[in-house]
Amino acid sequence: MYELILAHIARHVTLDKQEQDAFCAALQHRKLRRRQYLLQEGDICRHDHFVIKGGLRQYEVDADGRENVMQFGFEDWWISDWYSMLTNTPTVYNIEALEDTEVLQIERIKLEQLFITMPKLERYMRIIMLNAFVALQRRVLFMQKPSAERYAEFLRRYAHVEQRVAQQHVASYLGITRETLSRLRSQMIKQRGEKL
Amino acid sequence: MYELILAHIARHVTLDKQEQDAFCAALQHRKLRRRQYLLQEGDICRHDHFVIKGGLRQYEVDADGRENVMQFGFEDWWISDWYSMLTNTPTVYNIEALEDTEVLQIERIKLEQLFITMPKLERYMRIIMLNAFVALQRRVLFMQKPSAERYAEFLRRYAHVEQRVAQQHVASYLGITRETLSRLRSQMIKQRGEKL
DNA sequence: ACTATTTTTTACCAAATGTCACAGGTCCCG
DNA sequence: CGGGACCTGTGACATTTGGTAAAAAATAGT
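Above: the input entities. Below: the structure tokens describing the complete assembly.
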């Protein structure tokens, strides 16, 4: 059960056996069925979650009642609302399971305690957050390009994700309507046909 | 010279006199004239910079040769490329002074040393980064709205900035062309006239 | 104060995207 | 097996935004 997460950590810092055990002891296993929620608007987010099976989407509902996807979370991803978690304020996000899903979650408090006794873990988390930050910066810059390029980039970077989530959610992530995405796709298929 | 930055820190954590002095001793004062660069594409970013006077813009140049503004930095803001700084890799950003500008900069290494002896400082920096992260999330969600709303939100949140930077840079920040921004502005003026 | 340069505004047209409506398909559950 | 909920594809049309070019306005630097 802990293989995935330990391997993920090992990619960034080296924990000895004892540290690994201490970390895993703080984790809690949680199962969600498709369409169940890990977090809902108004909740205070008390955990960070690492996905070991399945997938989720994190979205907010805007003033017009539209759902805007902030990010997806599949195997090997951390997903949570860090702002709500670190400031103890109600979240604006919903995190819903797109498939039957399993996560390992850790309470904020336990995580902070571990940071003190295990600075390497803090280093790991800082790297994770930095990567998330950079990914957001890239996304902001990509939003400035035409939707066809955004979709192409999405396919390149998240090919496996695209297979598993409904197109309307991909569209929302890309900041376009499902109709536009559907048209982009049929154009791409047409072009491929011409080239063959 | 250190008033602004100490006040900024005091808003988040409490340092005693000795800690304040230790921190200030690590800072370096740097002046830039309008159009000078604090950082250029390809450089490795070795400092974090706190603006005490003037203003800057951080932008990348994309494959089509367009400049896309990632963020502005005016008084009381930290500005830097954390990714380049923390991973020692060349940056993709340029940071240019929009006015005659003064910053206090601190080397990454010194900052990390201070984190060890002064955990409160690390806490402060984590809060700063968290705020930057949340601002980026908000921006991604706002990119999904029509440009008029984006501009209105920008005016609400950064009214003082809008006064000081060229409209083409605001447009770039918002992800629209300067022509579109210009048209938005004239429409808004017209509407105001009608309401009066 | 004057010129050179940069920035903003405007008009016209083209392209991209959104909205609305409906049809067809799939999947789940009773 | 059938009905309902959900998802995708498509067409007609409206709206938004971009591209280009030229003029007007603002600004910097001497």
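Note for the figure: The interface with chain B takes residues 60, 62, 68, 70, 82-83, 86-87, 129-130, 132-134, 136-137, 139-141, 143-145, 175 of chain A (CB under 8 Å).
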